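Materials and Methods. Structural model of Cytochrome B. The 176-residue sequence of Cytochrome B from Bradyrhizobium manausense was retrieved and submitted for structure prediction as follows.
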Amino acid sequence: MMRHLQYGTPAKVFHWCIVALLAVQYPIGWLMPDIHRGMSPGAGMTFHISIGIAILVLTALRLVWRLAHPVAPESSLPAWQRLSSEVVHWLLYALVLATTISGWLFASFRGWPVSFFYLVPLPMLASDNAAAGRTIDGLHQAMEWALLVTIVVHVAAALAHIFIYRDRVMQRMLPG
Ligand code: HEM
Ligand code: HEM
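The predicted structure was written out as tokens:
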């Protein structure tokens, strides 16, 4: 399939919507009340789950769009940067999916009735299972940290292109 030379508007809108949602998702995750036995999800947790589901749905749509509209790395970059940027980008997709799906599994194993912003009840991915819940809790935390580290690498690379290489890589993801 032919690879486009630049990102189109849908790719940019998906990118920045997901960035904005992740920027509120982490603080909510850290600030919402800790989980203890027998509790049911409060407002903080319901918002965390709802925003997480929005991130999952947008990322799935974005991935489908991306697979249908391949974009080549900036051709002026050295080979190692073209390769490493693609590795980091696919890792970001994979880690966002792993974080959201492990979170959803966690809520399901706790037997929580979860809803999308109190509007739409969400299906359980699994039935009540305390032991599996503990395992998946560790997985959600590991994935959330792995994603954060990868985001730091990604943003550091973007900053390096702006301030050190002074090329047009950042422009590729900006409007216009
Ligand atoms: C990419 C999206 C997501 C990110 C970045 C994220 C991040 C976080 C963070 C930072 C915490 C706090 C855990 C800690 O103390 O270290 C957390 C906990 C939690 N998240 Fe998520 N989350 C995401 C998606 C989801 C989704 C989609 C669900 C459920 C449908 C979910 C369910 C939970 C639950 C149940 C907890 C509490 C368990 C615990 O304290 O470890 N998360 N998440
Ligand atoms: C302020 C923060 C961010 C900046 C400045 C930024 C910047 C960029 C830039 C310039 C590109 C294009 C790279 C290229 O042309 O090769 C890009 C692509 C990408 N970014 Fe970000 N980004 C940020 C945050 C994030 C976050 C939080 C995620 C997490 C999901 C993310 C995921 C991606 C992905 C997956 C691509 C590749 C798109 C594709 O090829 O399908 N970005 N970003």
